[in-house]
Write a structure and sequence with these properties.
With 395 residues, this protein is an alpha/beta fold. The protein has 15 helices and twelve strands. The C terminus is likely disordered. The structure holds pyridoxal-5'-phosphate (PLP). Pyridoxal-5'-phosphate (PLP) binds next to α2.
Amino acid sequence: MKRAIAHYEHGELGYRPENDEIVCTVGVKQAISDAMLASLNAGDEVLIPAPCWTSYMSIVAMAGGKVVPVQTDPADDFVLRAELLERHIGPRTRWIFLNSPSNPTGAMLSQSNLQSLAELLRRHPGIRILCDDIYHRLILDERPFLRLSALATDLRNRILTVNGVSKTYAMTGLRIGWAIGDVDLIKAMTIVQSQTSSCPNSVGQAAAIEALGGCQDGVSRARAFYRRRRDILLERLSEVPDLKLLRPAGGFFAWVGCYDLIGRCDKEGKVLQNDIDVASHFLAHGVAVYPDRPFRAKVICAFPSPQARSVWRKEADASPEPSKHCKALRRHLPTSCRPFPLQGCTDPFTARSRRYPVVGLLLTRFRSSACERRGPSRYPRRARQSARSSSDAAV
Ligand SMILES: Cc1ncc(COP(=O)(O)O)c(C=O)c1O
């Protein structure tokens, strides 16, 4: 497994990692948890650019660390700037997390962003950098994927790269991820892992070896498919008034600002005061919406229900008709506008959000649920065979 990981990663990393610089984990989730458990002391700070994947915060907290969110600006496409990051660095900062393309915004770091971040991090030698590259093969725009370890070779021993097969190969359930980094940290992470899961399952490892080393045509096809869905999704949503669209550069999520809806009344006369109210309003009309708080975003987000997902799938397959859900959204948008009830607003989160031009976003996961349902048939035949023989052996 480690040989397959080194072979798969070395081009973009800019070097070929040795076995003792790699640990294979039960998904990226465990790679991050192991790193935090192995390196944090109580109260150590971890800088996490927000909006961010929800689990980062829980993982850091579980390891006794303190999350310091670095709120990126929607008006700047949620890109992390070195000046912004610098304002959050303190004597107890131990880690900074980078996730490009990002879940949930789809924002990507450019070469100049990465270079200015590297410049800053050189001045703070006590800070490690965790690069979560799980969406690296799901870049939807014509942009190269760039890694900090390749651009700033002098920072390599402080960079922990985490990656896995969940997204690129839609092998979420097999739970295979890995981390590549400095030998001492990897050793400590391996010790932590040896007392939790011991190791990732052999069946998943067999399948992952095949996925990483096998023909990659399926990945290009999936990427083209996601790109098409993203474009259709954004086109349809652009027909809905008062939503602000952000074009994701990668990943399989789309964000839509719902700021203008906050402060309006629904048909029953209830004022939508915050993200939860807007989410509930859409849910009541059959559009699956997720409130923003778990993402540390000043936004609203939505994952379409399986039913809605199949609508996107049908649309991607050609229908020029606006989807049922976009129509529903348009029909049910609260229209009567009231002044924003800031004075009477008892919700501190919403009151704080007023500083940002975009408060509410819809987040749509436009990934094929069919891929997941189809499960093992997506894996190469040889992987299925070796998976079968390993599971037989295990039984
Ligand atoms: C940014 C990011 N990192 C890591 C993960 C988890 O990956 P895994 O399934 O390998 O644990 C996710 C899953 O949603 C994610 O969005």
